[in-house]
Amino acid sequence: MSQAPGSQAGPPSDVRAAATAGAGEPGGTDGARRSPAAASSPTLARLPEADAQLYLHPQTLARLGTLELRAKMIVEGVMSGAHRSPYHGFSVEFAQHRPYVAGDDIRHLDWKVFGRSDKLHLKQYQQETNLDLLVMVDSSGSMAFGSRLFAEASGQGRTANPRGGPEWTKFDHATAVGAALSYMALTQGDRTGLVVFADEVRAMLKRSSAQGVWRQIVGALSVQPVDKATNFSRVIDQVLGKLTNRCLIALVSDLYVDPEEYRTALARIRHRRHDVIVFQIIDRREREFDLSETAPFDGLEGEGRLQVDPRAIRRAYQQVFAEHLDKIEEITRSFGFDYQLVSTHDWLGPPMAAFMARRNSEIKRSKFG
Amino acid sequence: MTFLHTSLLAAGLACIAIPIIIHLLMNRRRKPVMWGAMRFLQEAFRRTRRRLLLEKYLLLAARCLLVALVALALARPLVGALGASGSQGRTFYLLIDNSLASGATDDAGRSALDRHKAAAREALGALSADGGDRVAVIALGAPAEALVLPPAHDPGAVAAVIDAIAPTAARADFAGAMALVAGSLRPEGAAPSTDAAAPPRADRAVVLMLSDFLEGSADLGPDSGAPGASFAGVRLPRGVTLIASEPAARGVSNVSVVGVEPLRSVVLGGAQPGEARAGEQVRVSLRRSGPGIDAPLATTVRALLAAPGSADSAAAESRTVVRWNPGQETATTAIALPPTPAAMHGGGGAVITVSIDRDALSADNTWRRPVEVRDSLRVGVIAPTRFGRAGGVDRLDAAAWIRIALAPRAESAQSGGEIEVVNIEPASIDSARLAGMDAVFLPRPDLLAEGAWARVRLFVDNGGLAVVFPPPGVSVHLWGDAFAAAMQPGWTPARQAIELAPRGGAGARLVAPTGAPSARGSAPARLLSLIEGELEELLRPVGVWRALPIEGSAAQSGETLLALPDGSPALWAGPIGVREAAPADGALAADTSARGVLAYFAVALDLEWTDLPTKPLAVPLLNELALQGVGRARGASWAIAGARPNVGRRVAELARIHEPDQPPQSAEVVAIDAEGLAREAVRAAGLWASRDERGTRRALLAVNPDPVAGRAGAQPRDAVGAWLAGAVERADDTAAPGATSAVVWLPTGAAAPGGAEPRAIAAALRDALGAGAPRSPISLPLLACALAVALLEMLLARWASHASLVTSAAPAGGAPLATIGGAA
């Protein structure tokens, strides 16, 4: 059984301290400064910081321990690592030859080529760099929905989520996905940061490669309120404004947003040459809509109330829902980003491992691989 | 369109509210569901809203339509001619004979009325209440009484009414019953209507007559079967079905008391208590009918004089036996009254009760006749008093002659005699003084002031007797104007006396009128009936030289007891206050029971006018005039059952006097109208007391069985059928009489010994009626439509519930929602 990285790290309460210290800095959280009301919110203050193991089951950790998180696009980092760097120079991995021009360092001449062809060519190498992973977790009101019992999903004997509810919400599942991703990044020495958003960026955790960061991420997520509507464009603007280097952005959300707004946001991310992995979290009941009693439905994001017979509109609902999922996936893939639909009713480990393996193989087959 | 069961229709239409209420309850508030993917829910609802509304309201409409169709089908609508007629099935008119003859009992002691009631109940059971049959009940005891009319739907209530029918002592009034039926079928002034209260259709009307049709019930008459002759011209509309119980195959042997006539209406008691006055007899008329008429028979007649309502069984009664010869139908016998009970001395009303042996028809075995028992009569002679001795016979005036004639014995004139004579001065007449008199004689009417005549009129109206003589020694009789104006006898006396014979001669002779009895009826009712036998002999020596005759038609308002040689009344008696608009028949029948009697003797009791005062006739003539006249003036003392008794204008009501041996009757008090007639007919025999507005008893009234109704002979079925057939209009009214095809006979047990089984009655009634109640022609199609709508509703409900979608699409066993990475 693998040991969770950072198990010797400080308590999760460091998250807020770090967030406060990093406010205004790239990769640092500015939630306290941007939303003092939220920072001083009694709800936030009351929420207990969850045990990180609630969201990463040991079996999941075992599956994730052997995985490697790669960036599909070229990223630049301050540390050499497993990722390709956009800076071609002198490294250990050959990249290409180019003709020698005056002024080039003759140390990089390929003498073997000169011996065979009497031409001077320089030998260029692919530089490996480190990966900055930014996990963006949606904490809008719709993420508070869940139809699975928390006790069943967490496997830790707890019957209530950190907000007191008995259900395993989509936000809980998003927390687990974020924890898993940060765990994988940390195991390969990459830096990991966190952004929690709804109608705006609620909290940010600066990127760090410290081993206990994933626990801080879980702790930070567990104290976030889950409400408000989603303003995706605004959130992307805020996040992109704080990113100075290219990152791998893991977007974990139910993506109940307008597809065109979503497309615009991804385009801006793509324009900044960031790589994106989209994890769309849905609940099985939301997709199946297998209710049988007429009841008033209240929207979690303040959409109002609607009394309907679920059986009467089930088919239309499923059709609308499927159209939306298809649209989101289509938009995501149209930018070359990876898309993964995740159900709260599924264990995270096996599908996550399968997804990462498939992604890595695709990267290797690509021209960058 | 009308409905056979409007109540079901109303209830069913009210049930339409049930699906609506359920629909509203479905929208009640439930626990809200917090939903994250609300935008998709709203979008799905927006896409399906019109279809959902259509489903919902289609389903609601289908359910309401289903309830409405079922309600309509159960209400059984009638359309077209059936509905427009307003008819709701058949209408039965049950005519039940409860006349006197219906009391005839069979060998088992069961009366015909009981059989009729049982048959009526069985007939009710054969009706179809669901089919909208209605029933009316009419009792035939005269006058016919509508017990249930207009026809009712409730057989239970009708059965209760039938059970409560009591026998009467009247004849059967088929004509009145037919008039009631005809009035129900063709109400006057009724506008065509389509509602349930519309008159029944004639072709759906059934008249069911339950009677034995004995002679006393059905008077077939000589021309039975002639169109319109049977029921006083009443004709039922064509199409009415006549059903009648079989006439009795043989009647019952019956002896009836058909009349009891005391010699005088006032019975004078003996000088000593317990002593009967000699010669006080009653004449009893009997009649027998039925199959036993050809056999000799002995009937014991008992007479009893007792106070009304007394239970003195120990009272003495007198008996006599009437022996019938074979074939003899009527008999008359005289029976002496038993001694006057001591309790009656001092005056008061009494009842002569004559009864005979009990037979099969016992209701007519008793006859009651009220009489007045008096120790003596007080007779006032209104004439001036002459002082001093009168001298010789030729010096006696009319008043003196009257006193001598009324009280021939000097001691009687003072007190203790039969007639007590009181002298009254003409100038001192007052109402109080007259009220103490039973009769007044007026030998000098010319001395009465105009106001005095009004008091005399009041005295007569109160039941007094006034005997008026023309005053002697008056050449022009002007008093007649005031007399006629006050008394209104219907005639006026002449102004001048006429000379009938030259003075000194033998004088003209008075004659007793002969021939047809007067309007009062039978001969014994006449005032001078007691001396009728000797009247001719007593009149022979009497001579009359002068008279003041009557001018006008006196014969129509009263009776002529003695006549002048020219036939004009010499002694006239009759009522006062005769209305100018006399009945068409000219008889006094309408006023026979009026109280008060006025007598006018056209000859003054003066030797210048006649030698009557000196002749033997004077004493019995004036005595009988006083005794019988006082009795007559008391007013009617008996009536026939089924009639409205005339008891006089001063009577407010009749109150029944309970007799120990009679069951209580429903009507205990009968009101009297302004004309003195009872407001309703009295159908049961018994004793009644007439009371004024202050509740003071004024007189007794006996209601006796109708003599006609007691005839118990059977009548042939064909004759009865022809008689009944005449009640219905026929297409060809000139058809030969005797056509009985219009009458359907129903066996009720009267024709055959042992009686018919009730089932046979019901079966026969069903057979006679043929087709049943009208059936709604669209009930079945409506039910079929309701079934189709029910199926449609099931499909709609299945479709709108979308239950199949949930079942088919429900995830099984918690299968994974989506395959991770499956879309990649």
Describe this protein's structure.
The complex is a heterodimer of chains A (369) and B (824). With 369 residues, chain A is α/β, with parallel strands linked by helices. The longest helix of chain A is centred in the C-terminal third of the chain and has 25 residues. Chain A is elongated and about 85 Å long. A six-stranded mixed β-sheet of chain A has the order 9-8-5-10-11-14, sandwiched between helices. A two-stranded antiparallel ribbon of chain A has the order 1-4. In chain A, strands 2-3 form a two-stranded antiparallel ribbon. In chain A, α8 packs antiparallel against α9. Chain A has two domains: 295 residues, von Willebrand factor, type A domain (Rossmann fold, 3-Layer(aba) Sandwich); 39 residues, no CATH class. In chain A, β8 and β9 form a beta hairpin. Chain B is an alpha/beta fold and 824 residues long. Chain B folds into four domains: 97 residues, no CATH class; 211 residues, 3-Layer(aba) Sandwich (Rossmann fold); 196 residues, Sandwich (Immunoglobulin-like); 257 residues, Rossmann fold (3-Layer(aba) Sandwich). Chain B contains 18 helices and 33 strands. The two termini of chain B are 73 Å apart. The chains are: A alpha/beta (369), B alpha/beta (824). Chains A and B meet through α12, β12, β13, α13 and β14 of A and β2, α3 and α18 of B.
